[in-house]
Design a protein that fits this description.
This protein is an alpha+beta fold. The chain folds into three domains: 2-91, DNA Primase, Chain A; 121-203, Alpha-Beta Complex (DNA primase DNAg catalytic core, N-terminal domain), CATH 3.90.980.10; 223-331, no CATH class. The chain has eleven helices and 14 strands. Strand 4 and strand 5 (66-68) form a beta hairpin.
C-alpha cells in the first residue's frame, strides 16, 4: 500500500518538477529542485525517484542530495506533505505506523549510539593517522571526537551490519555527525592514504539529515555554513553540509541567520554555480577577496593564517542580494 500512496503523490507533484518523466514502473527523472542541475543546459535532469524496498526514495546525481520521498515532499510543499502523512497513517495499521507529526522538524534517526569500538585520534601515539590530523592543524579539542578505522570495511560491517554498501579495506578517519538532540545521524570516512574516493558519507537512516555540527551550534547567533567538517572545526558556531550545496542548510535545519562560506574556487564551474544559487536564494554569502589564494579554510590555516583572522575576513567579505552579486561577478573566473 505504501508504494501505491507514494506513486499517487508523485503524480500530484509532477507538475511542480521541471523535465519530469517516468522512466519505468519505479523510476522517475526530473531536474533537482535543490541544486537546479545545470544553469547552462536546461535539459540536464539528474534528480530521481526510485524504489527502495517497499518505499520510494529521492537522489540527485549532481549535488548528492538523498532522502525519503516523505522528506522530499516536506522540503518542497509542507501542505502536500501533511496530506501524505495522513494518507499513510489512514492506510497502515496503527501498530506499524505512528500518528503523524505535522511539525516540520527533521525526522529523528533510529540509531543513537554515540561512540565506536575504535580509537580516537587523542588515544593514538606515534601513529600516521595522528600525524595526519596534526599536519592538518585540526584543533586539539576535536581529537576526542575523530576516530580512526584501520579497516574501514570491517568497521562498517561490524557497526552497521544491515548496510547495503560496498566498502574497501582501507584506513580512514571517522568523523561522526549528530542532530540537535545529539543523536547520531551518520559519519564521514575520510581517506588518509591513496584512495579513489576521498570522502565517504554514510547516513544511518533514510530520514537522517546530512550535516555536521548541528549538535554544537547556537541558533540565536549567526551560523556559518561550510562544505567540509574539518573546515567547520576552525570557525565558531558553524556547520558543514558535506557537499557544495550549502543553501540546503535551510531545508535541513530550518530558517535561521546563516552565512554561507563556499570554497574559494573561482575557476570551478560547480562551485561557481552553487554560489550563484546561494545568492539567488537571498542568503548572506562570503566572497573571498582576490589576495586569498587558498581553496578552503583548512588550507588557509595551513598557510599560516589564524582562525580569528579568517573569521574576521569572512565577516568583512560577507554580502547579500545585489552587493553579493556584484562581488561574485568580479570574483568568478569562469
Amino acid at each position: 500500500m505504501s508504494l501505491f500512496i507514494d506513486q499517487k503523490f508523485i503524480a500530484s507533484i509532477a507538475p511542480k518538477l521541471e523535465n519530469f518523466t517516468r522512466k519505468n514502473n519505479y523510476l522517475w527523472n526530473f531536474r533537482c529542485p535543490f541544486c537546479g542541475d545545470s544553469k547552462k543546459n536546461k535539459l540536464k535532469s539528474r534528480g530521481y525517484f526510485y524504489r527502495k524496498k517497499s518505499n520510494i526514495s529521492y537522489i540527485c546525481h549532481n549535488c548528492g542530495t538523498s532522502m525519503s520521498f516523505g522528506n522530499f515532499l516536506k522540503s518542497i510543499d509542507v501542505f502536500i506533505f501533511n496530506e501524505y502523512q495522513m494518507e499513510r497513517y489512514k492506510n497502515e495499521s496503527a501498530s506499524n505506523v505512528s500518528k503523524p507529526d505535522f511539525s516540520i522538524a527533521s525526522s529523528k534517526p533510529v540509531f543513537i549510539k554515540k561512540t565506536f569500538d575504535i580509537p580516537t585520534i587523542a588515544e593514538l601515539t606515534n601513529h600516521p593517522a595522528k600525524d595526519y590530523v596534526i599536519k592538518r592543524m585540526i584543533p586539539q579539542n576535536y581529537h576526542n571526537h575523530i576516530y580512526f578505522a584501520e579497516n574501514f570495511k570491517h568497521f562498517m560491517d561490524q557497526t552497521f551490519p544491515d548496510h547495503d554498501k560496498v566498502f574497501l579495506n582501507e584506513e580512514r578517519l571517522i568523523i561522526p555527525f549528530y542532530d540537535t538532540n545529539k543523536n547520531l545521524l551518520g559519519l564521514q570516512g575520510r581517506a588518509i592514504g591513496d584512495s579513489k574516493v576521498k570522502y565517504i558519507t554514510y547516513k544511518i537512516s533514510e530520514d537522517s539529515i546530512k550535516i555536521f555540527g548541528a549538535d554544537k551550534v547556537d541558533f540565536t547567533k549567526p551560523v556559518y555554513v561550510v562544505e567540509g567538517p574539518i573546515d567547520s572545526m576552525f570557525i565558531p558556531n558553524s556547520v558543514a553540509t558535506m557537499d557544495a550545496s550549502l543553501y540546503s542548510v535551510e531545508t535541513l535545519l530550518g530558517k535561521h541567520d546563516y552565512v554561507l562560506v563556499h570554497d574559494n574556487q573561482p575557476r570551478n564551474f560547480e562551485v561557481v554555480n552553487h554560489i550563484k544559487k546561494s545568492i539567488d536564494k537571498k542568503f548572506k554569502v562570503c566572497v573571498f577577496p582576490d589576495y586569498i589564494k587558498e581553496k578552503d579554510i583548512n588550507d588557509m590555516i595551513m598557510s599560516g593564517k589564524s582562525a580569528d583572522e579568517i573569521k574576521s575576513m569572512i565577516d568583512e567579505n560577507t554580502h547579500q542580494d545585489l552587493q553579493a552579486l556584484l562581488k561574485f561577478e568580479i570574483w568568478r573566473k569562469v
